[in-house]
Amino acid sequence: MLSDDVFLELQGIVGADNATREPAILDTYAFQYIAELIVGDNYMGRPCAVVMPGGTEEVQAIVRLCNRESIPYKAISTGWGAYGGSPAPGMLQLDLRRMNRILQIDADNMYAVVEPYVVGATLQAEAMGLGLNCHIAGSGANTSLLASATSVMGQGATGVFTGFSNRNLLGFEWVMPDGELLRVGCLQDSGEWFTGDGPGPSLRGVIRGFAGAFGGFGVFTKCAVKLYPWYGPRALELTGVSPDYEATVPENHAVYLISFRGWQDMKDFGNMVGEAEIAFALIHTPAAPAVVGVTRSNKEFHDLWKSGLFEHMKYSLEVVLTAGNAEEFTYQRDVLEDVIKWTGGKVALCSITGPRYYMDLAVALSRLVRQAGIKKTLRGTPALLTYMATEWRNGRTPALFAKALYLGLIKQCLQARCVFRPGGSFWTSMGGLTSWDCCIENAIEGERIKRGWIEKGILMDDGAEQGWGMLYESGAYAHCEEVAFYDQSDPVCVEGSMGYVTDTVKATIDKHLAMSLNATGDPFHAWYSPHVMNYHHHVAGIKEEFDPANLSEASTYINRGITETLIKLIEEGGGENLDFKDILTLADNEEAPAGTDAGRPAE
Amino acid sequence: MGVEGLSEAVSSGSVVTQKELMEDYGAGNGRKGALPAAVVFCETADDVVGLTKWARENGRKILPVSSAPPHESAVVQKEGYVVCDLSRMKRIVRADRRNRVALAEVGVTFEELDGALERVGLRAMTPLAPRTGKSVVASYLDRTPTLVPRAQWDLSDPLLCTEVIMGSGKLFRTGCSSGPGTLEEQWATGQAQKNPMGPSAFDFFRIVQGSRGSMGIVTWASMKCELRPRVHELLMLPSDDLAPLIRIVYGIAHARWGEECLILDSNNLTRLTGVPGMPAFALLVGVAGFDYRPEQRVSYQKRGIEGIISSEGARVSRSIAGVGGRRMLQVITSPSDPYWKGSPAEHADVYFLTTMNRAPDFVSVIDETCKKEKFDRAQVGLYLQPQLGGRVTHFEATVFAPREEADRMTRALAEAAAAKGAYFSRPAGNWDDLAYRDKPLLVETFRRTKKIFDPDGVMNPDVLFCKEVV
Ligand SMILES: Cc1cc2nc3c(=O)[nH]c(=O)nc-3n(C[C@H](O)[C@H](O)[C@H](O)COP(=O)(O)OP(=O)(O)OC[C@H]3O[C@@H](n4cnc5c(N)ncnc54)[C@H](O)[C@@H]3O)c2cc1C
Q: Dmax of chain B from CA atoms?
């Protein structure tokens, strides 16, 4: 419980209107997707209060107060996940929504300085007006750029052209866990933000890695992110009616959905398109979310999906081209067509149509029929015809699908629909950042594991293959995560989903498929660290050095005591048989030092 | 100071203690510094681990060195050091065309790596005409700028994964090379140590990079390579004025065209080519085609770049002072022997980061400081290297003068540049202290970070931020 005096002091810092202890409001912060997997119901621990600071000084004052009073705290910028909260009640939640300004766009030097609540859509709209664009993580255009750059991974569909959030971070301002303010990079010398490295070593390596500290290492109040050239119009022209917008595909842009014979061709295609440096996006969107994306209700989705025909669209990749002029566009298209030919691809959907496209489409469809079998095809055809007739009546031609796909990829705006609507909730696993070849191996293995859990009735039948994968930095590396839909209102599904997660984690370890994007938080450290150079010692070393009282809430970062207890238990229990759920229970029961989750007083 | 037990600590490495053999690393040959207590030529990571443990037990400090002499910055400054010379670690473990990655030990030089990469159709990203004998990994660990800004997505590029021995004696691997699986097991699943980030929630490679050996000793690294051009031309644009060149650089960066992209002044151009009569400045822009329709790529990019150039009322020159594009390209991308800047006794550098639009301010700083210091401006060479896709510019001034005079000038230039907001991201030389001036919290943060990985302060503890620490 927060004492009245301390609450008054907090109100004094942020203003009475910007601090609350109202339980109904506190619970809106605790209500989070995947909370049921972490704490067993839909609510994370209820915070002791929520404060909304208006600037860096206020954040500093709050963090200092927390240190003085030994109150655990954690900031959120846009608050899209359970990792913004704490499994235990009693933490002070900093909601940074009042810090919502784009402070600067340096168009020449292609970077923007943002506060925490600036979301992808806002910066993208401003940047496009200047011929620039930003990297938007796969969580969508509605989430914080700063949270992604400073604190959370950073996978996003246009990564082949716009990189990865970790790598897009330039200078930043950091309220350290003890409340000191550090301005990192060139800021102190020239007031500019163009780099966060040095002098000498780079503190970017201390505050985050492939994953981030997820709020467990102080509060970031401003940061600069790289911008990238945008070779499109100053504003995208939208048509359609909410939520079914489409964008006119501009001159010298194109979008393709390409079907392949199998995984090997997809490996070759990705490697070639990456190194040819022609693509603005190269992405594998699995069939189920794609069909969710083009339908308006679960009923419509179900009617189309139940035949089993569409799950065979899995051998497919999407490509977006954006060129600065016609000659460059011709080059990009010529190279893309070469690579499609070399790898046996067929264009199933394209914003540029012509006689050859229809020939390709026919082959792509016959390939789908061959892969699905005649039975599924016959079963699926009536639903498809009904769907198409309805669409046609509503004025949607096949070309509009290309337009919708283009908009979805450019603006990253279909995410919530695709992952939350079908099952109510989702988990994602595997997805280590590595070579594209290994990403495809992740997709293959993920599909195999998931099929078992679908057959057990735990996960939604999404056709099993749901690898969401893409390239980064002209194919320098890539990721492919295995998404799974589950019904969060069904305890059997909730319970079972964790088995799926454990299996995928084990597979990445046993089969050397790169460390999963799940590898953050103690239970996952306990699985991975002994197979990954015992890295947890070093991450914990950093945390303990800068936050000895462990007040910056670290349940998705690291608590050495918990991680090491779990490692021991896995070793003693023959780890292989220890369920992830068991680990979480053990983690909850583990005696932890003051300030950590387990050591926190109950409300 | 004795070195008892050192030979036993490093099983395959050899220990040298003869004074004349150690002079390359410290005091000697007219250089200031101290003589090391010993030089250990390490051959394996185990040697480095052994040396580190020995140093911890015996209260010694280690200076790692990877390149062949003459050593510029890796020089022993104080008593009590043992040099860890890794220049004999010369295995090129992998040159992987499919993944465009090489994995090599730290002793491998640019000329050695290039041969291996050429055989598989790749090329390494090189700094401007590096000296022969320069270690590739050491150069990347120092964040030395490379010539192709388009290919640089992070200032840490092209460095990817590393194997590091920490001051604690622990061997660690960074990025996805850390596991699960050995390198061989990772290769079997199609991996290639391509992702430098992590493992998990820290990027140790970023902490080691730029630390001049004070956070750990790297034994091998994987690095991003680029496709080897099938067609490769250099466009050269001489100019008396920097302003139009700057606008052209921005134009090219925003179009993401071109390969090499840099601006050199007349002094550097002459030093590099040996040809006098060079223009005040020249912008050099490479254009290349690779495995995919190479001619078509060169053709559209060249037309595009020439369009940007002509919009500034300028024109590409076939040659400058009689030096053609092909030769100039060769000069800037190849290791130079003898080194174009001369020996360490004949020059000194000062460099910092800024943005391209601020470059003219810093050129003025150079002009004014030379005047004030009564130093011949013609003996200062300028090199402007766009980095990070054109977002950042490495500004480098080389003072060509006997060392003492050169040092006096670099100090003066650095002080003057600092007053105008120069950012010394890679502190070195006799101006490294400026990088940390008035930044007590930052220095303290670095020191605390070092303590995590090097609790006894074994790793090169007299450089940079940790000068007074031990
Ligand atoms: C449907 C969905 C899809 C997702 N897909 C992706 C994806 O493809 N790629 C990806 O990278 N991530 C993904 N995420 C994870 C995450 O949501 C994103 O990384 C997102 O960019 C961050 O926005 P957020 O609203 O979750 O941020 P927040 O909730 O604001 O923060 C996320 C984390 O960062 C911490 N944090 C936020 N702001 C600060 C700050 N100022 N200082 C210190 N710590 C801070 C929080 O405590 C929290 O732990 C996804 C999440 C969802 C719900």
A: 70
Specify the pLDDT at position A600: 34
- CATH code of the domain containing A189: 3.30.465.10
User: At which residue do the structure tokens 């030097």 appear?
Assistant: A109
Give the pLDDT band of residue A594 (cuts 50, 70, 90).
Answer: very low
Sheet containing strand B92-96, edge to edge, reads: B92-96, B101-105, B216-224, B159-166, B171-173
Band the pLDDT of A587: cuts 50, 70, 90. low
* Total domain count, chain A: 4
Mutate to test the interface with A, among B423, B431, B446 (most CBs of A within 10 A): B423
User: pLDDT tens digits, residue range A280-318?
Assistant: 999 998 889 888 988 888 999 999 998 888 888 899 999
Residues A270 and A317 in one domain: yes
B187 in reach of chain A (CB within 8 A): no
Average pLDDT over residues A436-443: 97
Q: How many CA atoms lie within 13 A of A528 on its CB side?
A: 32
Ligand 1 interacting residues, C-beta cut-off 6 A = A 74-81, 83-84, 96, 116, 137-139, 143-144, 146-148, 151-155, 214-215, 219-220, 415, 419, 556
Residue B43 has, within 13 A of its CA and on its CB side, a CA count of: 8
**Alpha-helix residue ranges (DSSP H) falling in B170-293:** 183-188, 204-208, 242-255, 266-273
Distance A147 CA to ligand 1 centre (A): 6
Nearest atom in ligand 1 to the alpha carbon of residue A468 is 8
Segment A543-555 shows an average pLDDT of 97
Q: What is the pLDDT of residue B31?
A: 63
What is the spatial distance between Cα A295 and Cα A289, in angstroms, rounded to a whole number? 10
**Structural domain harbouring A181:** 102-229
The whole-angstrom separation of Cα A21 and Cα B155 is 45
Instruction: For residue A234, tell me if it sits in a domain.
Output: no
Q: Are A201 and A306 members of one domain?
A: no
What CATH architecture does domain B92-227 belong to? Answer: 2-Layer Sandwich (3.30)
The answer to whether residue A379 sits within a structural domain is: yes
Q: Which amino acid is at A309?
A: L
Hey, are the CB atoms on B191 and A438 less than 8 Å from each other?
A: yes
In 3D, which of B371, B467, B468 has the Cα closest to residue B427? B467
Q: Reply yes or no on whether the pLDDT at A603 is more than 80.
A: no
Ligand 1 centroid to residue A429 C-alpha, Å: 16
Q: What is the pLDDT of residues B319-353, one digit of tens each?
A: 999 999 999 999 999 999 999 999 989 999 999 99
List strand residue ranges (DSSP E) for A125-237, in order: 132-134, 169-175, 181-184, 219-229
Tell me which H or E stretch contains B394. Answer: strand B392-400
**How would you label B327-361 residue by residue, b for 16+ Cβ within 10 Å and e otherwise?**
ebbebbbebbeebbbeebeebbbbbbbbbbbbbee
**A341 at B interface, C-beta within 8 A:** no
A419, A509, A520, A435: which is closest to A469 by C-alpha?
A: A435
Q: Which residues pair with A112 in a beta bridge?
A: A105, A225
Q: How confident is the model at residue A593 (pLDDT cuts 50, 70, 90)?
A: very low
CATH code, A87: 3.30.43.10
Chain B environment of A516 (Cβ under 8 Å) = none
Class of domain B231-333: alpha beta
**pTM for the structure as a whole:** 0.96
Domain boundary at A448, A475, A510, which? A510
Residues A403 and A537 occupy one common structural domain: no
Contact A327 B212 (CB under 8 A): no
B194:A186 CB<8 A: no
- Evaluate whether residue A404 is within a structural domain: yes
Give dist(CA A513, CA A535) in Å, integer: 18
ipTM, interface predicted TM-score of the complex: 0.97
Candidates 2.60.120.20, 3.30.43.10, 3.40.109.40, 3.40.50.150; correct CATH number of B6-85? 3.30.43.10
Is the CATH number of domain B347-435 1.10.540? no
